[in-house]
Write the structure tokens for this entry.
Amino acid sequence: MFPKKPTKKQHVYLDHGATTQPDALVTQAMEPWLREQFANPSALYSVGVEARSAIEDSRTQIADILHATKDTIVFTSGGTESTNMAILGVARKYAEKGKHIITTEIEHPSVLEPMKQLEKEGFEITYLPVNEEGLLNMKDVVSALREDTILVSIMYVNNEIGSINPIHEIGKEILKWRKKHKTIFPLFHTDACQAASTLDVHVERLHVDLMSINGSKLYGPKGIGLLYKRRGVELEPLMYGGGQEQGIRSGTENVASIMGMAEAFRIAHEQKESYVVHMKDVRDYFFQQMSHIPGVHLNGPSLDNIHRSVGHLNMYFEGIDADALVLYLDEYGIMCAKGSACATGKNEASHVLEAIGLSNERIGGSIRFTIGRDTTKKDIDYVMEYLPGIVEGLRTTV
Ligand SMILES: *Cc1c(COP(=O)(O)O)cnc(C)c1O
């Protein structure tokens, strides 16, 4: 017996790891650039010049938040383009300097797939393992470094389980290694798509040479992102054409989305601390409630681990098929995910949950809730009205 459907169906969005709702100020900042101020920013007449200068103001505004100079910001079509641009761009530019790259087993597909492509192009990739909490061992990182390592690419926050890699410490180790070997290699890239809304993105403190961020996980628009690229780092472009974005990313700029992303960055930067406190509070409340359901377990870092992102709760429900649970929850207006959105439809076991040593049975019964800055305890109360009954129903009907 499943719980009775609510008479007034609410919508509770718990899939912020997939994308976030654009802030009202974000869409407001985009509006004019989608309508009357539509001119091409490369045009010579005044409305074109206005668009150009608006883009450059956004670039400066974002660069300030990253503690970078504006010439280090390249606008892209999102996280996937940024990571591909960084990885393929560095590898193809500096192949003569070495053909070894280090990454981790739990990266997003937008990192793992270009790595696979590079293997076909003759590069050797080291995939670092993680422990059962999804965390790297710093010693493994250092001992994987070689004279021919040109790039290290390590994600900041894992999208499935929310484990946080100590980017700042890894960056420091890489700097030390470079100094000792009197080289500028390896370059250090981090995929910060899941991190930008809640964690420090100060590029100097993080010691990164390249950093990928998207608008879609930052309460900004989808289909927009950026690559931070330290001065002096060169990249082989992915696309060739009109030479926009310093020749690295040809194509007419997505003016409205750049405005939207800049606004999203501003809001995140100004309010990050309070959002983090709020999200942690709601997450702990949710976890507390869920732990009363029998046969429910947390995947990934323990709740009190400081290397855990505030929004993620990846949970195993014994004796449940994750797909069925996600679909049943949707019937009650509750939106969450099985693993990551990016692997959906492939029907493969999550490589992240495999990497932390979970059994196939456990992986098959695990779903991901990702809390956002607008999620409230009331939302959680609504979820808890139905979740235990749905779990019970699924366990007894199968
Ligand atoms: C979402 C995500 C991406 C891909 O970003 P898109 O904007 O969808 O291309 C890359 N890496 C991580 C960690 C992500 O969460």
Summary: Residues 308 and 381 are 23 Å apart (CA to CA).
